[in-house]
C-alpha cells in the first residue's frame, strides 16, 4: 500500500510540473512578448530591445521556464506588469478573503451534502428522494451568478437583512462579518452542494446493485444500517473524489461570487490580471489554484487507497 | 441465468419507445421555444440589438420596452431575443468542436492503445489537473478576448471530458465479444470503430452531448459575466447580466431576466438529459424492503 | 402442522426497465416440512430462483409478488407489514446466494458479516455469537476456524468463501434455509467439498431447506423431494428417487434425457489420425502482462475431427483459443494453420489464413452486435472472405440460417429478439460463413440450458459430418467433451497434464488430476456424494488451491500420490504411454491411478 501511495504522490508532483509547463507555455506562445505588452502601442525598436535585455527575454524559453519555476518554488512570484509591485505581496493581501470564503462554504456544503445524499439514498424512489433529485438537478444547471443575484435581490435589496457587499473591515464584529459573508458563502455552497449531494446518492445507490447488498438486505437489516454500514464504506472512494472535485470547482465558483459581491479576493486579482494581460500575475495565480486543485485530488486518492481493504490487507 | 425471450425487446434502437414524461415534454417545449426565437429572432424583435430606444435607463418592466430598458436605454426584450442566438450558437459550436476532438482522440486512444493512448491520456490528464475556468482564463489572458479564442478555448476545455467518456466507452465496448469476433475475422480499425463501437455508444454520447452543451452555456455566460466573453455591443445573455448588475439596486430586473433565461435553458437541457438516462434505470434493493 | 413453509398459488410479476409487468411465476404451490430439503429444478426463466426468494416475502428489483399466500411458521407473511416481514429475514429464514465472492461485502471482515444477522435480531451478544460461528466454521471443515473470521473476503479462496456463506446463513439458526444455485459457480473439484459441507450442516441442524439448481446430479445428492418447474409453472413434484427414476411428465423426461451419460461409459472410435492437422500449436507460452497463463502447451487438431480441451477455471483453455485465433499474442512457440506457419497476431494474417480458422465465443449474448441485424452479422463474413454482395449474399445468409436449423426470416431480426440457444446458433453460422477448416469453440454450451446445449452439440455433430469441419472444443464439462471428442487434452494451471485419444484419456491409467476430475463429476446416483467425498483424493484436493507458475508439478499441492522432493521441484515432462496417450507425471507407469471410478 505504501508503494501505491508513494507512486500516487510522485504522480501528483509530475502533474504539477506538467501544469506549470502548460501555464508557462500558454502565456509564452502568444504573438509578441511581455516587453511589447508593457510598452504597448508607443514602443520603439530600441526601447523594446533594452527592455527585453533588462527582463532577460532574449534567453531561450527553457532557461526562462526554469528560472520562473525556481522563483515559484522559493516564493518569488515575479513583478506585476500593471502595478510594478511584487506579485507575492499582491497575492498575500488578497489570499485570506478567498480562503475564508472557500473554507466557510466547504464547511457548510460538505457535511450537508453528505447528509442529504445519504438521506435521499435511504428514501430511494420515495417522495423525498424525487423532490431532492428534481431540485438538485435544476440547481446544478443554474449559473452561480443567477443564484447570487437572486439572493442579493431578495435578502439585500428587498429585505435588507444582509449585506450585498462582502467587503469586510478589520473592525467588524462577528455579526457584521456574518452579515457581509452570508450571501457569498451561501451562493458558493449552493453551487457545489447540489452536485455533491447527487453524486453521494448515486454512488451509494450504485453499490446497491451489487449482490452483497441484496445479501445484506436479506439478513433483515434496516435501511439505515444498510446504507451507512454496508454501502457507504464501498462508496467512499467515488464520494471522496467528488468532494475533491467540487472543492476545487469552488475555484471557478469563487471567481463569479467574488465578482457578484465585490470581494477583493485572489480570483478578482486573476480576472483583473487577465483583463490587463498582466502575465506574471496570471501565471502566479494560475499556479496557486492549480496546486490547490492537484493537492485536493491527491488527498482524495490517497484517502481512497487507505480506505480500500484490498490494499490495506493484501492476501 | 437470464432468458432473452422473457424480456425480448421488439426493436433495438436508440429511440425505441420514447416513453415521454411530463417533465421531458415541458423541458423539450422550453428548448423548442428558445430554438424558434433563435432562428426567427430578427423578424420578431421590435428593435435592433444595439438600438437605443429610450433616454431612460434601467426602465422597469412595461416602460420603454416590454421588459424595460437596460443601462444604456436599449430594449431588454429585443436584446434578449438577439441574445438567445448568440448564446445557443456559441454553445453549439463549442460543443461540436469538443466532440470532434474528444470523440476522435478518445476512440483512437481506446482502439490503438499503446503509446498513443498513454501520450494523449497524459496530456488530457494534465489539462484536467486544472479547474476549467482557470484554464480558459489563462488562455484568454494570453490571447485576449475574441470570439475565435473564446470558442476554441471553451471547446478545448470541454473536449477533455468528452475524451474521457469516449475513451472509456471505447475500452468497455472494445473488449466485448462481438468486437473480438470482428477482430478475429480480420476487420480493420475503421470498421471496428464505425460499425461495432460507435453504434453501441450512441446513447451515452448523446447524453454527454447534452451535458456538455449545458456546461458550455454556463461556462460561456460565466465568462461573459466576468467581461471576458462576448463583447459589446453584441447581445449575449451572460453579457447582459454583467452590464445590468448595477440596476439591481435601482429596482431594475434587466440583470435578472437574462440570468433567468440562461437558467431556463440549462435546466431544461439537464432535465432532458436526465430523462434520457433515467429510462434505462430500474429499482434498487432498498425499495424492495418496503414492499 | 409440521410444515415450515407453505406456499399457495404464488404469483410473481417482473418488469424490464420502463416496460410493463409480465408474469414470471404463474400460480405455484409448494410446502416444505421440518428438516426436509426441497429442490426446485428447471431451466433459466422457469422462475425457480424467484420462488425461492418469494418464500422470504422478497422480490428482486423490477419484480413484485402479485398474489398468493406464503405461510412461514404458521402465519401468512404477505399479510404482515413490510417492517415485520423484513424482520423475519436473517432470523427465521436465511439465504445462500450463487456467488460467495460477490455476496460478501468487500469492505467488512468476514466474522462481522457472519454474526451480523443474529446480532441485529437480538439472538445474543457478539462474543457468544462469534463462538457459535467458530463452531460452525469447524463443522464446515474450514481451515483456521479461530482466525478466519478476522479476514476480509478477498483474503479467502472461493470454495472457502462459499462455505463461509453457509456459516453466515446458519448463524441465526434459521427454520428455513434458501440455497440459490450455491455450487453452480464452482469448479467440479471444489464443488464436492462445498456440497458435502452444505448437506452435513443441514442434516446436523435439522433445518428445512429449499435448494435451487439446474443440475439434476446435484439434486440427487441433497434433496428429499423435487419440484420441476417450467416457465413459472409446476410441471411435476415427487420424492427424489421417483423423479429421477420414474419421471411422469414428458418435460421431466426431456430434462433427464439431456443430462449427459457419465463420461467413462462412452466408447470412441479414433477417427482421423492419418490426416494432416489443421491446427498445429507447438510449445505455446502466452500470458497477459507479467502473468504467464500457458506454458509449453502443444496441441494438434487433425482435419475433420474434434479435439476436446478440458480444464477448470483459470487453467488457460480460453487463452489457448485466443492464442490460436491470434487475439492474444504468444510469447514462445509456433502455430501452424493447415500446414502453414501463421503470424502470431491476427493483424498480420492474410484473409485466407483467417478464413480457415474461426472462433465461437462462450457468451452468445455478447458475441453478437446488438445494433446489427442477423442478416448483416452473417452477411459481413460472406462479403469479407468471399466477396459476396447483394442477391448472392442474401441467398447465402438464408442457406446458413437453414444450416443451423433457423428460419430464413431471422435475417431481418436483431440479436435482442432471439433466445440464448438461437443466438449461439447464429454465432456458429457466422463462423461457418467463412467456410472454415476448423472452428474454435470456446465453452459454447456452458451458458446454455441443458436441453438447449444438447441441441447445439447435436448440431455441431451434424455439421461436422456434413461439412467436414474440425473443432477445437474447449469446455470445463467433461461429459460433453467425452461424448463428442475424438481426442482430449487435459489442462491444469496452464500446462498439459494428459492428452491422447478420448478413449485412452478416459480409461486407466490416469493422470492423478484427470482421475480427480473424472471422479468429481456429479452422478445422478443418490449417495454418490458420500462415497466420493470421503476418498483420499477428494480430501487432498480440497487442501490446496490452483497455483499458476509453480516450480514443479502444478498439481503437487493437491495430489495424494505426491513424491516430495521430486514433484514439488521438477516439472514432469509429457511421457508417451501406449495408444498415443501422453501423461505428465513423475509416477512410474505402473503406479498411476488405474482403478475404475
From TrEMBL, chain A:
Which controlled-vocabulary keywords does the entry list? Cell membrane, Membrane, Transmembrane, Transmembrane helix, Transport
UniProt-recorded name of the protein: ABC transporter permease
Under the heading CDD domains, the entry gives: TM_PBP2
Q: Which family does it belong to?
A: Belongs to the binding-protein-dependent transport system permease family.
User: What's one Pfam family here?
Assistant: BPD_transp_1_N
Keyword Nucleotidyltransferase (UniProt): no
Q: Which organism is it from?
A: Ruegeria pomeroyi
How does this chain sit within the bilayer?
Answer: Multi-pass membrane protein
Q: Which domain of life is it from?
A: Bacteria
* Transmembrane regions: 12-30, 99-119, 131-154, 174-194, 239-261, 281-307
Q: Which GO terms describe its biological process?
A: transmembrane transport
- Coiled coil spans: none
GO cellular component term of the entry, any: plasma membrane
PANTHER family associated with the record: DIPEPTIDE TRANSPORT SYSTEM PERMEASE PROTEIN DPPB-RELATED, PEPTIDE ABC TRANSPORTER PERMEASE PROTEIN
TrEMBL record, chain B:
Judging by the UniProt lineage, the source's domain of life is Bacteria
- Name a GO CC annotation attached to this entry: plasma membrane
Keyword Transport in the entry? The reply is yes
Q: Does the keyword DNA repair apply?
A: no
User: What transmembrane ranges does the database entry give?
Assistant: 24-45, 88-112, 132-158, 209-228, 248-273
Q: Which SUPFAM superfamilies match?
A: MetI-like
Give the UniProt keywords, A-Z: Cell membrane, Membrane, Transmembrane, Transmembrane helix, Transport
Recorded topology in the membrane: Multi-pass membrane protein
Give the family, as the similarity comment puts it: Belongs to the binding-protein-dependent transport system permease family.
Record's protein name = ABC transporter permease
* Species for this entry: Ruegeria pomeroyi
Amino acid at each position: 500500500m505504501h508503494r501505491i501511495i508513494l507512486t500516487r504522490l510522485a504522480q501528483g508532483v509530475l502533474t504539477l510540473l506538467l501544469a506549470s509547463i502548460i501555464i508557462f507555455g500558454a502565456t509564452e506562445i502568444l504573438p509578441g512578448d511581455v516587453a511589447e505588452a508593457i510598452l504597448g502601442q508607443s514602443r520603439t525598436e530600441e526601447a523594446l530591445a533594452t527592455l527585453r535585455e533588462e527582463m532577460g527575454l532574449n534567453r531561450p524559453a527553457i532557461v526562462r521556464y526554469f528560472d520562473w519555476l525556481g522563483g515559484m518554488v522559493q516564493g518569488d512570484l515575479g513583478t506585476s506588469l500593471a502595478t510594478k509591485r511584487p506579485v507575492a505581496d499582491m497575492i498575500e493581501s488578497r489570499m485570506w478573503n478567498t480562503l475564508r470564503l472557500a473554507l466557510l462554504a466547504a464547511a457548510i456544503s460538505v457535511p450537508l451534502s453528505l447528509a442529504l445524499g445519504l438521506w435521499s439514498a435511504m428514501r430511494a424512489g420515495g417522495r423525498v428522494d424525487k423532490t431532492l433529485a428534481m431540485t438538485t438537478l435544476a440547481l446544478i444547471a443554474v449559473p452561480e451568478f443567477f443564484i447570487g443575484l437572486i439572493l442579493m435581490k431578495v435578502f439585500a435589496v428587498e429585505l435588507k437583512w444582509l449585506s450585498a457587499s462582502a467587503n469586510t473591515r478589520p473592525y467588524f464584529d462577528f455579526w457584521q462579518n456574518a452579515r457581509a459573508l452570508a450571501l457569498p458563502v451561501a451562493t458558493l455552497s449552493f453551487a457545489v452542494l447540489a452536485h455533491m449531494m447527487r453524486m453521494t446518492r448515486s454512488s451509494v445507490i450504485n453499490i446497491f446493485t451489487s449482490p452483497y447488498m441484496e445479501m445484506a438486505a436479506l439478513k433483515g437489516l434496516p435501511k439505515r444500517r444498510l446504507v451507512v454500514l454496508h454501502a457507504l464504506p464501498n462508496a467512499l472512494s467515488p464520494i471522496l473524489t467528488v468532494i475533491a472535485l467540487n472543492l476545487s470547482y469552488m475555484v471557478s465558483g469563487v471567481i463569479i461570487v467574488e465578482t457578484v459581491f465585490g470581494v477583493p479576493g485572489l480570483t478578482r486579482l486573476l480576472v483583473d490580471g487577465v483583463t490587463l494581460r498582466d502575465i506574471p500575475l496570471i501565471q502566479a495565480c494560475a499556479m496557486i489554484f492549480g496546486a490547490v486543485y492537484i493537492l485536493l485530488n491527491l488527498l482524495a486518492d490517497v484517502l481512497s487507497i487507505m480506505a480500500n481493504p484490498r490494499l490495506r490487507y493484501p492476501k | 441465468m437470464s432468458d432473452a425471450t422473457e424480456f425480448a425487446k421488439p426493436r433495438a434502437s436508440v429511440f425505441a419507445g420514447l416513453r415521454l414524461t411530463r417533465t421531458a415534454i415541458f423541458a423539450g417545449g422550453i428548448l423548442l421555444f428558445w430554438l424558434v426565437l433563435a432562428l426567427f429572432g430578427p423578424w420578431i424583435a421590435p428593435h435592433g440589438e444595439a438600438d437605443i430606444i429610450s433616454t431612460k435607463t434601467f426602465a422597469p418592466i412595461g416602460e420603454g420596452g416590454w421588459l424595460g430598458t437596460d443601462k444604456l436605454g436599449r430594449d431588454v426584450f429585443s436584446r434578449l431575443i438577439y441574445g438567445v442566438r448568440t448564446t445557443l450558437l456559441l454553445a453549439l459550436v463549442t460543443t461540436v468542436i469538443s466532440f470532434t476532438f474528444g470523440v476522435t482522440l478518445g476512440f483512437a486512444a481506446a482502439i490503438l492503445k499503446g503509446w498513443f493512448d498513454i501520450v494523449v491520456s497524459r496530456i488530457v490528464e494534465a489539462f484536467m489537473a486544472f479547474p476549467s475556468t482557470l484554464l480558459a482564463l489563462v488562455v484568454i489572458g494570453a490571447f485576449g478576448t475574441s470570439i475565435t479564442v473564446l470558442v476554441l478555448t471553451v471547446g478545448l476545455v470541454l473536449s477533455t471530458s468528452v475524451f474521457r467518456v469516449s475513451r472509456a466507452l471505447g475500452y468497455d465496448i472494445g473488449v466485448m465479444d462481438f468486437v473480438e469476433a470482428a477482430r478475429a475475422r480480420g476487420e480493420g480499425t475503421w470498421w471496428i470503430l464505425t460499425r461495432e463501437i460507435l453504434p453501441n455508444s450512441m446513447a451515452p454520447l448523446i447524453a454527454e452531448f447534452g451535458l456538455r452543451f449545458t456546461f458550455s452555456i454556463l461556462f460561456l455566460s460565466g465568462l461573459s459575466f466576468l467581461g471576458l466573453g462576448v463583447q459589446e455591443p453584441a447581445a449575449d445573455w451572460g453579457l447582459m447580466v454583467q452590464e445590468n448588475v448595477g440596476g439591481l439596486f435601482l429596482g431594475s430586473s434587466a440583470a435578472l431576466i437574462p440570468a433567468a433565461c440562461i437558467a431556463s435553458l440549462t435546466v431544461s437541457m439537464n432535465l432532458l438529459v436526465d430523462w434520457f438516462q433515467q429510462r434505462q434505470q430500474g429499482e434498487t434493493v432498498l425499495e424492495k424492503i418496503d414492499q | 402442522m409440521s410444515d415450515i413453509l407453505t406456499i399457495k398459488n404464488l404469483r410473481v410479476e417482473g418488469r424490464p426497465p420502463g416496460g410493463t409487468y409480465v408474469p414470471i411465476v404463474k400460480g405455484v404451490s409448494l410446502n416444505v416440512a421440518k428438516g426436509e430439503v426441497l429442490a426446485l429444478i428447471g431451466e433459466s426463466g422457469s422462475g425457480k430462483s424467484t420462488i425461492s426468494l418469494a418464500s422470504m416475502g422478497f422480490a428482486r428489483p423490477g419484480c413484485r409478488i402479485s398474489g398468493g399466500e406464503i405461510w412461514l411458521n404458521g402465519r401468512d407473511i404477505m399479510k404482515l407489514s413490510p417492517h415485520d416481514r423484513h424482520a423475519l429475514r436473517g432470523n427465521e429464514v436465511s439465504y445462500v446466494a450463487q456467488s460467495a465472492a460477490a455476496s460478501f461485502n468487500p469492505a467488512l471482515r468476514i466474522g462481522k458479516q457472519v454474526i451480523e444477522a443474529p446480532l441485529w435480531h437480538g439472538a445474543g451478544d457478539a462474543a457468544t455469537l462469534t463462538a457459535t460461528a467458530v463452531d460452525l466454521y469447524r463443522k464446515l471443515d474450514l481451515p483456521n476456524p479461530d482466525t478466519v473470521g478476522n479476514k476480509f473476503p478477498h483474503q479467502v479462496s472461493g470454495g472457502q468463501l462459499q462455505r463461509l456463506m453457509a456459516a453466515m446463513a446458519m448463524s441465526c439458526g434459521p427454520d428455513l434455509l434458501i440455497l440459490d444455485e450455491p455450487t453452480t459457480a464452482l469448479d467440479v473439484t471444489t464443488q464436492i467439498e462445498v456440497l458435502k459441507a452444505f448437506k452435513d450442516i443441514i442434516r446436523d441442524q435439522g433445518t428445512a431447506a429449499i435448494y435451487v439448481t439446474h443440475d439434476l446430479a446435484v439434486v440427487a445428492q441433497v434433496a428429499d423431494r423435487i419440484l420441476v418447474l417450467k416457465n413459472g409453472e409446476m410441471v411435476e413434484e415427487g420424492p427424489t428417487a421417483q423423479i429421477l427414476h420414474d419421471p411422469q411428465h414428458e418435460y421431466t423426461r426431456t430434462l433427464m434425457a439431456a443430462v449427459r451419460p457419465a463420461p467413462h461409459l462412452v466408447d470412441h472410435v479414433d477417427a482421423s489420425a492419418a490426416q494432416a492437422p489443421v491446427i498445429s500449436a507447438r510449445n505455446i507460452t502466452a500470458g497477459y502482462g507479467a502473468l504467464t497463463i500457458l506454458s509449453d502447451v502443444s496441441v494438434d487438431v487433425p482435419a475433420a475431427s474434434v479435439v476436446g480441451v478440458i480444464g477448470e477455471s483459470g487453467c488457460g483453455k480460453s487463452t489457448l483459443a485466443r492464442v490460436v485465433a491470434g487475439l492474444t499474442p504468444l510469447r514462445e512457440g509456433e502455430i501452424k494453420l493447415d500446414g502453414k506457419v501463421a503470424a502470431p497476431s491476427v493483424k498480420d494474417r492474410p484473409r485466407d489464413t483467417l478464413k480457415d480458422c474461426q472462433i465461437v465465443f462462450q457468451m452468445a449474448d455478447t458475441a453478437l452486435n446488438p445494433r446489427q441485424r442477423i442478416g448483416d452479422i452473417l452477411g459481413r463474413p460472406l462479403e469479407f472472405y468471399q466477396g459476396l454482395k447483394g442477391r448472392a449474399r442474401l441467398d447465402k445468409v438464408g442457406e446458413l440460417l437453414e444450416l443451423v436449423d433457423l428460419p430464413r426470416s431471422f435475417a431481418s431480426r436483431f440479436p435482442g429478439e432471439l433466445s440464448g440457444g438461437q443466438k449461439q446458433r447464429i454465432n456458429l453460422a457466422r463462423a461457418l460463413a467463412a467456410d472454415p477448416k476448423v472452428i474454435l469453440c470456446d465453452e459454447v454450451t456452458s451458458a446454455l440450458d441443458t436441453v438447449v446445449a444438447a441441441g447445439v452439440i447435436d448440431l455441431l455433430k451434424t455439421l461436422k459430418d456434413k461439412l467436414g469441419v474440425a473443432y477445437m472444443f474447449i469446455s470445463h464439462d467433461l461429459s460433453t467433451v467425452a461424448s463428442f471428442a475424438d481426442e482430449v487434452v487435459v489442462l491444469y494451471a496452464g500446462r498439459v497434464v494428459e492428452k491422447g485419444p478420448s478413449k485412452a484419456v478416459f480409461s486407466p491409467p490416469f493422470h492423478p488430476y484427470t482421475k480427480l476430475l473424472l471422479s468429481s463429476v456429479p452422478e445422478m446416483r443418490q449417495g454418490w456424494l458420500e462415497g466420493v467425498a470421503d476418498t483420499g483424493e477428494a480430501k487432498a484436493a480440497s487442501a490446496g488451491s490452483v497455483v499458476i507458475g509453480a516450480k514443479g508439478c502444478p498439481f503437487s499441492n493437491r495430489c495424494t500420490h505426491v513424491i516430495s522432493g521430486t514433484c514439488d521441484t521438477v516439472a514432469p515432462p509429457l511421457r508417451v504411454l501406449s495408444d498415443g496417450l501422453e501423461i505428465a507425471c513423475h509416477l512410474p507407469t505402473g503406479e498411476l491411478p488405474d482403478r475404475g471410478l
